[in-house]
Amino acid sequence: MYDLAAFGIITGFISGFFGVGGGLILVPMLLVSGFIMKEAVAISIMQMVFSSIYGSFLNSKKATGVLKDGIIIGIGGFVGGLQSGYIVTNVSNEILQYVFIVILVYSIIKIFITPAEHDCDQKSKSKVTLFIIGFFTGLVAMSIGVGGSVILTPILVGFLKYDLKAATALGLFFVIFSSIAGFTSLSLSGHMLFTQGAIVGVCSLIGVYFGIMLKNKVHSNSYKKYILLLNTLILITMLYKTF
């Protein structure tokens, strides 16, 4: 129980600072501590419900401009996330871990080659395009136990021309939709671990508060370096655990 509480605080801080659901850091920690991939996914998704709602509330005063697109992407993510129970039931733990690694490599490359701030305006996209982006992000993310920000943020920064901090705020807002859908789907399919997920989720609220507070004080270029460092460390952990 104490390990789960510590995992929650650490994950909450990462979630608030980096605008992620927390699965990026929580899933590897749970795997190393002895949980199998599908159990780690379940705990991670329940934690995301707590951290994403509270984190988005704290972000709301500074991120009002991104919420319009965020709602459309979020609805797509909710629909996609509802399919995750089927994926988790029918796909092996090993394949889910390989997908996680591929997503991390993609995210690192895309964020590395894209500036943290854009001089040009954001690209305007149709509602259908935003919904489709959200749908496939939610489908894949909930199946591997991450909120979707690791997939969504490179798309927002690289293709829709969001500044990095705005993209991470939108990414955490997106996690509300995808995580609730994932929680519903995994609960109905019998994969959810309610007690462990609740312990991690409640404790994560402490970390979220301090993570967002620190994020608002960091320069964008330094913030990009921190995101790349985090993703690289998690990639190394996943490669070690998988191979």
Your description of this structure?
- There is one protein chain.
- This protein is mainly alpha-helical and 243 residues long.
- The chain has one domain.
- Helix content is 79%, strand content 0%.
- α2 runs antiparallel to α3.
- It starts with a helix and ends with a helix.
- The model has no long low-confidence stretch (mean pLDDT 85).
DSSP helical segment count = 11
Q: What is the averaged pLDDT score?
A: 85
Q: H/E order of the elements?
A: HHHHHHHHHHH
Strand content: under 5%
InterPro entries: TM_pro_TauE-like (IPR002781), TSUP/Inactive_protease-like (IPR051598)
Pfam family, one: TauE
Protein name: Probable membrane transporter protein
Family: Belongs to the 4-toluene sulfonate uptake permease (TSUP) (TC 2.A.102) family.
Topology diagram in text:
Blueprint: H1 2-18, H2 23-32, H3 37-59, H4 67-81, H5 84-90, H6 93-113, H7 127-144, H8 149-158, H9 164-188, H10 194-215, H11 220-242
Helix pairs in contact: 1-2, 1-3, 1-10, 2-3, 2-11, 3-9, 3-10, 4-7, 4-9, 5-7, 5-9, 6-8, 6-11, 7-9, 8-9
Keywords:
transmembrane; TM_pro_TauE-like; TSUP/Inactive_protease-like; 243 residues; mainly alpha; cell membrane
Produce a short descriptive summary.
With 243 residues, the chain is mostly helical.
